[in-house]
Structures are given as C-alpha cells and as structure tokens.
Amino acid sequence: MTKQRLYLYDTTLRDGQQTQGVQFSTAEKITIANALDTLGVDYIEGGWPGANPTDSAFFDDAPRTRAKMTAFGMTKRAGLSAENDDVLAAVMNAGTDTVCLVGKTHDFHVTAALGIELAENTGNISKSIAYLVAQGREALFDAEHFFDGYRANPDYALTAIKAAYDAGARWIVLCDTNGGTLPAEVARITAEVIAAGIPGTHLGIHTHNDTENAVACSLAAVDAGARQIQGTLNGLGERCGNANLTTLIPILLLKEPYASAYDTGISLEALEGLTQISRSLDEILNRVPMKQAAFVGSSAFAHKAGLHASAILKDPSTYEHVQPELVGNARIIPMSNQAGQSNLRRRLEGAGLSVAKGDPALGLILDQVKAREADGYSYDTAQASFELLARQALGQMPDLFEVKRYRVTVERRKNKYNQMVSLSEAVVVVKVDGEKRLSVSESMDAEGCDRGPVNALSKALVKDLGQYSALLEDMHLVDFKVRITQGGTEAVTRVIIDSEDGQGRRWSTVGVSANIVDASFEALLDAIRWKLIRDNKA
C-alpha cells in the first residue's frame, strides 16, 4: 500500500517561546533548529521577525536546514495595503521561502478585537496571501480561533479560510487557539471543511493542550483527512502548551494505523535520537525533564511492581507497547519495597552485576532495601544509590576514598554595599591514596552569588580527591529535591539529587538524616562514587 505524506511543522521556536518562563537566546534557537533538522521535521517556524530583537537576529543568522525555515507574522492591517504594511514587510524581509500568516476566522474576534467589518477582514486575508504568492513565497494561513469561530458562525469561518485558499495558500491550518475543542468535534469539523472544498492535502491542524487533548485532537484531524500537524518539542506553548511532537512522532511512526498509512519524512534511525533531543531542550531551558512523559520520560519504561518485572524478564512486550530503544530511551527496573527477586536480578543485570537465581545475597539485598525504605530511604527513583547498596552487599564495592570529617558553616553578613548577603563555607577531610587531604571551599559562583552549603560541600569534596578529581570535572547537579518523611520532633529529611555528566548520563541518589545538610552530603557522596565506578576508574 502506498503511504500518504504527512507533514510535520514545528513551532517550538515561536509558539514554544510563549511558555511562561521560557525565553530563548538567538544561539539557543540556532541549536534547537539544528536538532529539529536532524530529527527530520518538514517545517521549522523560527519566530516572528520584527516582533522582538531575538527573533530578528535569528533570521539574520538562521542555519541552513533541509527543513523549510518559516517566518511567522500576521495578515496586513486594515487601512494599509500589503505592500505598505511595515509589520508584514519585516516578515517578508526575513528572506524565508515559506511564510505563515495568522488571521482572524471567528466573527466575534473580527468585530470585537479588530473592530472592522467581516468583509474587510476577509479581504485582508486574501490580499495578504496573494501578496506572498506573488513574491514567490510558499504561504500558510493560520486560521486563529477557527473551531470556536466555526461553532459560532460556520459560514463566515469557511468564507475566511476559503479566501486564503483561493488566494494561493499552500496550507490552511485550523487552529484550536483556546484549546477547548475535544477530539470528536475536531474530527467532525475537519471533515466538514474538506467537504466544503478545501482538500485535506492542503489542510493542517494546530492544537493547544488546555484539556490535555492536544495530541488526540491532532490525530483526530489526521483521521478526518488533514495532512499537516503543527506542534512543539516537549509540548511547550502558552498556558498548558501545544500538541507535543515528542509524543506525536513516535505514534505516527510506531503505532497503527498511522505507521502503515503515512510517511512523515522522519526515519526510524532519527527516531532513536528523540529522547536525547527532548532532554537537550530541557537542559537549554534549565528545566527538569518530566519523568512521566510518554516515550521520552525516564519513567516511560520503568517497571516497579514485582509481578510486572517478572513478566518483563520473559517478554518485554507483556508490559511495554513499544521497545524503548526505538525512541532512544531505556528500560528501568526500579527498586522498592514492592520488589521481588526477579525484579532485583533484572535491575542488577542492568548495572552489570550478575547474580545467580537463588543466591542468598538476593535476599540480603531485598531485606536491606525494605529496612532502609522503612527508615525513609526511597530507591524507587534513586537507582544509583540502590546499585551502590547492592555492590556493598555483594562485596563488589571498591575502596575509593573515605570521608573522615566535614564541617559547613553559613554566615549572614553585610557587604560593602550595606546589603545582607549569605556565604557558605565547607571543610572536608578525606583519606584517599593512603593519605589524608583537607579541602576548603566557598559556595560563591562566578557572579558572586552564594550557591548554598551543599554546593560548598560539593566543591570542597571534589577539590582534592587525588586521582579522582579530574574525572569529576564534567559532573554537575541538575536537580535537588527535599522531603520531610515524618512529622513532629522526629522528622526525617530525605534528599534526592539528580546528577549529569558530559556523556549525557543522568542518575539519582538518595540521602536520609534528621539534618538536611547531612542527608544532602550522603546523596552527594553516592553520586560521586557511582560515577567513578561506572567510568571504570576505580
């Protein structure tokens, strides 16, 4: 069967930048654009030239991509010709072969927001698209608030998009701008648009996730005949975000009926880089990746229950709908007090520790895990700490270094500007390579800001670890979580630290103590020891 072509349009650099707290630099936008091109999307919307300095600078230095680089703007303003509208001129001057213009298709927005007659708005759409086409540009029309407009006044909504299509638009993109339309209605309205005379091969879908249905609505539009999907990496976007391409792409390539019916232009080889691209974006944004994200989340292929893990050992398809390797992810068998020996052995094998079935050490490890979790530890997420516990029980824990003592102080004082500031200082004494070493470090960063007592301890600890110090230079902390596991005067603090290194590896460690600094230091020690062991440098 000949596959139909389905086009993927990424708007991470424009719509994604509307996410609260997200602001890309020009260099970051170039990095993301290159990653998107490597993945294989068909269109990359670079931003709105003229709307802000960053977007304008991006188009001045936009990378050469296989994907069609697209400039975004709006239809000409009332009272101006397309040729004399300076806002439209800025979009055209970006020099992209493809231009996407947004326009009103909801009668309420035309009369209330724009304050013009419906016919004038239709004329503005038609003249703007015709101008793009006359200049040799591929034109897309984003029909803003289309689904709301179609419900309120279907005749006008259709008139507006037909004006763009008749003027030469390559794509008419139906936008669920408020994100409130549900999949069944998206499918119905998309089918009615096609029946009204706009071919599905010229129809796109742009959904928002305000009801957690953006992906489902996008697929519903495809089922109804639309052949372009707009979305963002990791579902970035205003309010609740846009349709998530890191979810949609694997569905289209790996799940039926889409895998057999459509060609997206993205290869299975490129799909294997999806998880890395997703996490790289989070790294750029300095955000912690969402563990439960479909396909690319660190928990997407985690099997905690003993019954599940036992079945996974026999056949992974018992509890996995796709193979994690296909999207560049990995299977995880977390350790917790729900674990059985099958679960345990699988997790040990993943750490390179082979233990025979029935080995008495398995029972010992399980008992230790359950006893320590009763004390407040959690090995469900702290896989690296679990591995160290298991190595200790198996007699496979190398003698790396020993912490003899440490001290950390936090001082609050006025600086030369008469401002109250904090300063943390740590002293750590370790025994390594047969000798004691003392290191002192403050927690000030390059900008002179205090990074806290845990940062001071970390810097002091790795400052003089003999043969190991250089091996830890590419390691850094990416997340720090604190939880009080008991209340009252007997409160116990659990600290989870997520670390990452230059190889892109990410691991979690846990520490527990009544003292938050002590719990943090325990987790930090585990993080360092795990890296040294995994690098085979012990």
Automatic annotation (TrEMBL):
CDD domains: DRE_TIM_LeuA3 (cd07941). Pathway: Amino-acid biosynthesis; L-isoleucine biosynthesis; 2-oxobutanoate from pyruvate: step 1/3. One of its GO terms (biological process) is L-leucine biosynthetic process. Keywords: Amino-acid biosynthesis, Branched-chain amino acid biosynthesis, Isoleucine biosynthesis, Transferase. It comes from the Bacteria. InterPro entries: 2-isopropylmalate_synth_dimer, AIPM/Hcit_synth_CS, Aldolase_TIM, Citramal_synthase, LeuA/HCS_post-cat, LeuA_allosteric_dom_sf, PYR_CT. It catalyses: pyruvate + acetyl-CoA + H2O = (3R)-citramalate + CoA + H(+). Pfam families: HCS_D2, HMGL-like, LeuA_dimer. SUPFAM superfamilies: 2-isopropylmalate synthase LeuA, allosteric (dimerisation) domain, Aldolase. It is an enzyme of class 2 (transferase). GO terms for molecular function: (R)-citramalate synthase activity; 2-isopropylmalate synthase activity. Its EC number is 2.3.3.21. The keyword Amino-acid biosynthesis applies. Gene3D superfamilies: 1.10.238.260, 3.30.160.270, Aldolase class I. The keyword Amino-acid biosynthesis applies. Residues 6-272 form the Pyruvate carboxyltransferase domain. PANTHER family: (R)-CITRAMALATE SYNTHASE, ALPHA-IPM SYNTHASE/HOMOCITRATE SYNTHASE. Belongs to the alpha-IPM synthase/homocitrate synthase family. This is Citramalate synthase. It comes from Sulfitobacter marinus.
